[in-house]
Amino acid sequence: MKKALAIGLAAVMAVSMSAPVFAEDEGKGIAKEDLKVGVIYIGDENEGYTAAHMKGIDEMEEKLGLDDSQIIEKTLIGEDEGCYDAAADLADQGCQIIFANSFGHETYILEAAGEYPEVQFCHATGTQAASSGLSNMHNYFTSIYEARYVSGVVAGLKLNQMIEDGTVKEDACKIGYVGAYPYAEVISGYTSFFLGARSVCPSATMEVKYTNSWASFDLEKECADALISDGCVLISQHADTTGAPTACEAAGVPCVGYNIDMTSVAPNTALTSASMDWGVYYTYAVQCMLDGTAIDTDWCKGFAEGADKITALNDKTVAEGTEEKVKEVEDALIDGSLHVFDTSAFTVDGKELDTYKKGDTEYISDGYLHLILRLMELHLLQNKKIAGAAKRGAIYDSRAARAAALLFSYRTCKRSLEVF
Questions:
Q1: Is the whole-model pTM more than 0.85?
Q2: CA torsion angle for 380, 382, 387, 388 (degrees, to 10)?
Q3: pLDDT tens digits for 227-261?
């Protein structure tokens, strides 16, 4: 489904990985009053991931001064032939640019792009635009692992507060993580969250359980309940509903959400949520249509460009000093002095990495793993892994299948770090 089947992060694409392309008539912008935009959503406003995309479309519309009548949105479009039908219908209605927000939409968007060469197709979290040979096909995502790292810092500070006030013992700071699928995007995401937490709370460990669904309130709540029963004292998630925060509110367990502010369902336990401002991309891509300029084939931005963020801190629940620490970390990400996957934070085979190559591609430079490059490869190459040892503790990964390509995974019991 959405979010990369192995990023992605994640899903994620590097802007410089391939040359930007546009239609053959590059340079001929479309008059604002003549522009029509189509959007295909996997969910609707009741599902956090899609709600965030809808908010981004609204932001784009407002910033560019478009009218509601110029935006045609299709919700609850599955990852099947119905997606192609939706794309074709939008093209037939005169949309010059069409967005689709779920990973599993890509096959059908590629098909539509081939049949409607005069229409620009932009697909979130996908991987095949650059290799498709289609000048009107584009992929986009954000560096969401940055937001997950920052939200992990918020969680780690909360754990420190709980240790200080005697709520938990230092050796019992186990985080629970509700993951959707064992895809690289999810696993690189919970790894960055964990690294953020461990940067301020070195005793933290983590247990991960998968729902095998992007959006299931019941499964996410069930997962969170199980993690809490297993001794987890703080819960986070890479799943799209309010199921986990609902369980946390009932149990009085602090939580970090995803996509949207969770205080509406967990006013006494929600800390913040890792989130993305999709409006940055939607505004960029549609502005390209108006200007007649190239849309990047692969687009990925982070905190520096305002594409990644965390939601407002819940003053009722976050630890003292959290706001100041968050600003410090965000500023470091923006100015480049902090890299989430700094190779000094882990070892492989007991050794720090100063090189990591696949074929002719080197993924480590300047002391950190260049996640975007590696994750793009992992979208396409599954099941290659190198086992290693964590430098400072580890976490337990659930027994769910982890065969999909992923970046990092930890196990408490073996105190190991795996690099895929």
A1: no
A2: 30
A3: 999 999 999 999 999 999 999 999 999 999 999 99
